[in-house]
Amino acid sequence: MSQTLEATFDGTVFRPTEAVELKSDTRVRLIVTDQSTADVFDEWQALLTVNKEDDCAAVQQALDEMDAGDHGTSWKDFDIEFRQKHLIN
Predict the structure, then answer these.
(1) pTM of the shown model
(2) Sign of the C-alpha dihedral computed for residues 39, 44, 48 and 53 taken in this order
(3) Residue 89 CA: distances (Å) to CA of 41, 81, 82, 83, 85
(4) Partners of 8 in beta bridges
(5) Which helix (DSSP H) or strand (DSSP E) does residue 38 occupy?
(6) How many Cα atoms occupy the beta-carbon half-sphere of 8 within 13 Å?
(7) 14-16 and 7-9 as β-strands: parallel, antiparallel, unpaired?
(8) pLDDT, tens digit, for every residue of 2-55?
(9) CA 33, 20, 28, 47: dihedral to nearest 10 degrees?
(10) CB within 8 Å of 17: residues ≥ 6 apart
């Protein structure tokens, strides 16, 4: 049986992003292909039912910034800013 799956690698283990139809402890062969941000963006854009140009431009800009080394806002900083903005203690 052959399946094409997407997964994330946490540094130790590959974790499928969807259900896998295999019994536990089944031996498999993995062929790993790193998915570029451009590929992800193209797939996401193909799933859109309506072309939202502003959204696409914003996502593309964020992906370009990530490719240039910008890792965005840390969860801690986001949480602080979000709580302040929405007056949450």
Answers:
(1) 0.37
(2) negative
(3) 36, 11, 10, 7, 11
(4) 15
(5) helix 37-47
(6) 3
(7) antiparallel
(8) 778 888 889 999 999 888 888 999 998 887 777 777 787 887 777 776 667 777
(9) -20
(10) 5, 6, 7, 8
Q: Return the structure tokens found at 51.
A: 């072309």
Give me the half-sphere count of Cα atoms (radius 13 Å) on the Cβ side of residue 61: 6
**CB distance 14 to 8 below 8 Å:** yes
The residues near 59 (Cβ < 8 Å, ≥ 6 apart) are: 41, 44
DSSP summary character for residue 35: P
Query: Residue 8: in which H helix or E strand, if any?
Result: strand 7-9
62: tokens are 């964020």
